[in-house]
Amino acid sequence: MPKMKTNRGAAKRFKTTGTGKLRRWKANKSHILTKKAAKRKRNLRQPGLVDSTNMRGIQRLLPYG
Predict the structure, then answer these.
(1) What are the structural domains of the chain?
(2) Confidence class of residue 60 from pLDDT cuts 50, 70 and 90?
(3) 65 vs 58: CA distance, rounded Å
(4) How far apart are alpha carbons 54 and 51 in whole angstroms?
(5) CA 8/CA 30 separation, integer angstroms
(6) Residue 34 · residue 59 · CB < 8 Å
(7) Rounded Cα distance, 37 and 29, in Å
(8) Which of 1, 29, 35, 40 is positioned for an S-S bond with 44, CB 3.0–4.6 A?
(9) Beta bridge partners of 14
(10) Is the dihedral of CA 17, 19, 20, 22 positive or negative?
(11) Considering only CA atoms, which of 17, 3, 9 is closest in space to residue 58?
(12) Whole-angstrom Cα distance, residue 14 to residue 6?
């Protein structure tokens, strides 16, 4: 049986934590930043975790991650 292919777009967007959860980066921080509060921009810098309802689909894209 051939090897499964990793979805390269997903591999660049998600990383696995030590406990097996998926880390993601937040959207809305690349442009039109003048109207956003400093607190909001600061919170967007922190990575978030993928919601449990989306985990199965994303893990299917990352068979070896």
Answers:
(1) 8-61 (4.10.410.60)
(2) very high
(3) 10
(4) 6
(5) 22
(6) no
(7) 11
(8) 29
(9) 24
(10) negative
(11) 9
(12) 12
Q: pLDDT tens-digit profile of 13-56?
A: 999 999 999 999 999 999 999 999 999 999 999 999 999 999 99
**Beta partners for 15?**
23
Both tokens of residue 40?
């909001």
Q: CA-based diameter of the chain, in Å?
A: 53
Residue with tokens 């985990």, as numbered in its chain: 55
Residue 28: what residue type?
N
